[in-house]
Design a protein that fits this description.
Blueprint (H helix, E strand, L loop, with lengths): L1 E5 L6 H12 L3 E3 H11 L2 H11 L6 H12 L8 E4 L5 H13 L6 E6 L2 H9 L1 E4 L6 E3 L18 E2 L6 H15 L1 H7 L4 E5 L4 H16 L1
Helix pairs in contact: 1-9, 2-3, 2-4, 3-4, 4-5, 6-7
GO molecular function: AMP kinase activity; ATP binding
Catalytic activity: AMP + ATP = 2 ADP
Keywords: ATP-binding, Cytoplasm, Kinase, Nucleotide biosynthesis, Nucleotide-binding, Transferase
Amino acid sequence: MRIVLVGPPGAGKGTQAAFLAKNLAIPHIATGDLFRANMSQGTQLGQKAKEYMSAGQLVPDEITIGMAKDRMAQPDAASGFLLDGFPRNIAQARALDGYLDETDQKLDAVLDLEVPEDEVVKRIAGRRICRNDSSHVFHVEYSAPKTDGVCDVCGGELYQREDDREETVRKRLEVYHSETEPIIDHYKAQGLVTTIPALGAVGEVTERAMSALQRTRA
């Protein structure tokens, strides 16, 4: 299957993508991973991306699109893939359409993870990260530490990242609504979109997504 996963920041795309890709035995292609891999390997696209990022500039669409095309052309993606974070805007969606047409492939589904905006803000703004180890993540409401501000694992100080502050989250949501949300209508016109309520336990959301994909296959 060839799937695009879309949803606002804090919707749980990365978590769901990992579960779905494993269940479907297809590669999980995430934009962040593409950038890291290309830069660490020193590819031409990776070098160009690094130049823009070092200058504090946005990486142009054509570089992101090039990385995505290269990854989708790898042998492990021959029978399908799950795209997470790509396409991010209409230009990238049209480029993906063109690539799939050129390679005689088609998307099977676009899963739209739906989360109320206030819940998104609560999820992200409530995160607290350990200064000693960023893999130690807590949440003031959903997974609070035993002692406020102290990591249960190593005793390090917990802090809120700048990206997780409420005002920053709301700005990220504005960007999502203006740039990414239009791709949902783009794919609705192709009859590909299924909206997945993304509230509830991780496993419950995965079950909803898998059920939707099974209906797509039927």
